Amino acid sequence: MRVLLATDGSEYSEAAALEMARLGLPAGTQVSVVFVAETPQYGVTTSPYPVPLNLTELEAAQRERGNVAVARAREILEAGAVKNQITVTTKVVSGAPKQSILAEAEQLGADLIVVGACGHGRIERFFIGSVAQAVAMHAKCSVQIARKKES
To answer: What pLDDT shows up at residue 84?
Structure first.
């Protein structure tokens, strides 16, 4: 079985990793943890005048955030892998999250995609969209959307 776990380093992605660690995945399952480093296409500023941004620095910061996120997810999964005997790989890619997750799943030949639901309300979903919703609608395999349990 091949599983793609998409993470953005948030508490919602961590909840998805924790849920996966509790799943009874079959021995030999390959889990690929993916973080998509998304950088702005244009400089964003509160100044009325354009301020050039160093996109290289922004991308490097996103990649570093991604390395931390995939390492944390790997740690969670490997803690549960002792009994499940799964293999975990990590990857940080650049691009738009919705399309990149689907492309990575396709390349992996994923049987399952696991994403965390960040709990946006209707208005936020309308304006910014939902990565989990887009992945669930367009994936060619099953998708599990994990929710963070409130304490």
So the answer is: 64
